[in-house]
Amino acid sequence: EVQLVQSGPEVKKPGESLKISCEASGYRFITYWIGWVRHMPGKGLEWMGVTYPADSDTRYSPSFQGQISVSADKSINTAYLQWSSLKASDTAMYYCIVTSGYDRGWYKSWGQGTLVTVSP
Amino acid sequence: DIQMTQSPSTLSASVGDRVTITCRARHSINDWLAWYQHKPGTAPKLLIYKASSLESGVPSRFNGSGSGTEFALTINNLQPDDFATYYCQQYSSYWTFGQGTKVEIK
Fold this sequence. Notes:
Chain A has strands at residues 3-6, 10-12, 18-25, 33-39, 45-52, 57-60, 69-73, 78-83, 92-99, 107-110, 114-118. By secondary structure, chain A is an all-beta fold. In chain A, strand 5 and strand 6 form a beta hairpin. Chain B is mainly beta. In chain B, strands 2, 4, 5, 6, 9, 10 and 11 form a seven-stranded mixed sheet that branches. A four-stranded antiparallel sheet of chain B has the order 1-3-8-7, with no helix packed on it.
């Protein structure tokens, strides 16, 4: 069974950097794409970016290109979502997901979510 | 982006009811559609993929249908555990989600 365990909630100030993590288990880490979905309060779900740990191929939603960095460390079965300079509008719940691919792949499993709060 | 329109946004129902949630795609997505269930504070859960294929371990009272641009999720004999928010998702071209349907107790 695929399990995704995300890092804990974060409270940051605008302009600060942040890296949150997602540890995967229950499958061979390099066989699936792993990525992130944003859920803002009162809004819908938005995919942000996905990466393929076997070769580090990474795809970003146009809405998030240049704003975030998605990466994975296959030696420790962990994926990351990183910001270099947070904004108040980054306040949201972030979910880690696993998919067979960006082409015809549904989300096989989700993490429990990491709440990020950005406030002065 | 392939826009997904989901309705209703909220649905009030009782235990034992049959409820239907609909999802419409702006362009044909064949059967590249999934449904997820989400309860607050937990990980969303895959229910249906390829429009009508039931994920392993999901009760058979959940039924997905449709193809092209019109899809539906039907829950037969609604159970207390089913009160949650449901999302459709197209995966024909990357991913987009419907806005969600909250199924609440009448």
